Amino acid sequence: MRVRAAFRERYLDVVGSIYLYNEFRGYTSLDRVLEAVRVRCPDDRVFQDEIAKHRADEHKHYVMFRRWFERQGRMPLKVDSRVGHIDRFIQWVFHCSIEELDTDHILANADEFEQLCRVIMLTEQRGYAQVEIILKNKLIMSDPILKRIFQIVHKDEPDHFMPYQRWLERQGRATAKWNERAADWCIHKILMLGKLPALFLDAGRERMEQWPDEAGALPAH
User: Fold this and answer.
1) What's domain 8-205's superfamily in CATH?
2) Which residues, in sequence order, are CB contacts of 140 under 8 Å at separation 6+?
3) How many other β-carbons are positioned within 10 Å of the β-carbon of residue 23?
4) What is the three-state SS of 74-119?
5) For 89-109, how does the pLDDT look when each residue is reduced to its tens digit (9 = 90+)?
6) Is the whole-model pTM more than 0.85?
7) CA 215, CA 213: separation in Å to the nearest integer?
8) Which residues, 6 or more positions from 30, have their beta carbon under 8 angstroms from its beta carbon?
């Protein structure tokens, strides 16, 4: 029983830490996306409002995971961009980190702006599919607070990819290209089959000393 309890605690710790990182990364990165959309699509208030809601939801999710850790009386495990789906996707497509992304260049290039929208859309679609799997995971669902958190995330998630999909369709552009879907699939497998188990087995992994929103940033590496 002790081994099972320790396994469960570690597993939930890892899942919570990864989600907290990705939610923080999501809402802080969307600040730049929203700014870009206001410049690129100044008259499309609907699209702007949808992205603002996306950003607000990501922040809400981050706060929920933070409060879950606070109730446990411990800080999340210290993780970085190697567990971030959007970090890896941006690196794969644009060959740079999120911080290094040249927003001005993307604004001036219609193809790259549309590509950024597809990257966000595919990331959020992947997130939706993953949460559907999590909602069937008995280990995670055994924690009533985490269960409620993921139910909320699942409800919110369609509003996070549909705005970008609808915008691309209105422009008559592809909503996803085969190489982008392949990249999304590969990144997901790397995270699920490599990074998550490695983090679980890393008994010496340190914990964060500050919450990301208090520290102002997360480590890039």
Assistant:
1) Ferritin, core subunit, four-helix bundle (1.20.1260.10)
2) 11, 12, 15, 134, 146, 147, 150
3) 23
4) CCCECCCHHHCHHHHHHHHHHCCCCCCCCHHHHHHCHHHHHHHHHH
5) 999 999 999 989 888 888 888
6) yes
7) 6
8) 51, 54, 55, 58
